[in-house]
Amino acid sequence: MSLTDTRIRNLKYPGRPAKFADGNGLYLYLSSSGKKFWRMAYYFERKEKVLSFGEYPVITLEKARELRLEAKRLLADGIDPGAQKKAAKEEQLSEAKDTFQNIALEWHDTRTADFTEKHRGTVLYRMEKYIFPVIGKEHIARMEAPDILAVVKPIELKGQNETARRLLQIISQVYRYAVITGRAKRNPATDLHGALRPRKVTHRAAVTESKKVAQLLRDIDVYDGYFSITCALRLAPLVFTRPTELRAAEWSEFDLEAQEWRIPAERMKMKQMHIVPLSKQAVKILKELQPFSGSGKYLFPSIRTETRPIADATMLNALRRMGYAKHEMCTHGFRSVASTLLNELGYNRDWIERQLAHGERNDVRAAYNYAEYLPERRRMMQEWADYLDKLKAS
CB of 52 within 8 A of CB of 38? Predict the structure, then answer.
């Protein structure tokens, strides 16, 4: 006997859960709580199964019969309606879970752990400001190259070419992570190769002619400034590390007896330990600096507090006070000076690149290359310091 709405409304709990059939496998299940649920019994591949349709009266009798008919059609096509419903539910959950924003934040948490806090913050800021408002809510597996282009092209058209290039790089890294973790089948960002204008290479300002370098060295020697800053400026051409690596140098990293500075991996751009052989001239400067800051953590403590090193702009401002304009010299320029003149002097390019701590493409090799060419580099660094002394005296 088929069910009616009147009969369903008047059903009373008989003291135990009960089933009330409507026909063709559909029945109403009356639970011990008094709630009524639509279910359908069916066979698939000789196995008895049960399909749930929802609770009465949210799912009406008429709607329950429609759902039964749909399930019967699937069975006639050889499809398990229970499996079909489960797949649809998983897809619905995926729609909400596998958005670009969710996966990008997951990538940021897990894959940028080795970045500096400053760089991690920059990446997150770029995603929140430029990427998420455009594609954050999109399902990551359903986007194509034009969707990504809609993020970066407007930024490029505003003249922010480098920002657009960085955004495309971030999106591509998120997609690589999604492919690895099974949330996307391919990386559509790779289809945008050539879509943005080529990057303009801008060389950092540096005086590289030997006569101008000689004058720079003399200017540094007579510079009348805060003692730690003058020492940092005198050391810069002798060690030619990145400005951040030099300004935040710690006494614990130095072995003056061995004439060696070992910069730990966490302070290096490429996250690999770096050895800087120290010339006699560099050791002399460090020994002069020891009575000033040797009892503290940093070689070059801030004027305001010993708990922090000098700021990024401190050495740059000193160069400006010496009369070197923005287009003439910057703190990063000491690396260009060393690279240019050492190559002109005929030193092995591999020694120079290793001493500059430029990135190693082979990750396995990079883990061990901090000591590569070390004897040759020791000799080169001492000869370089001697050469600078001769330049300065010329």
Answer: yes
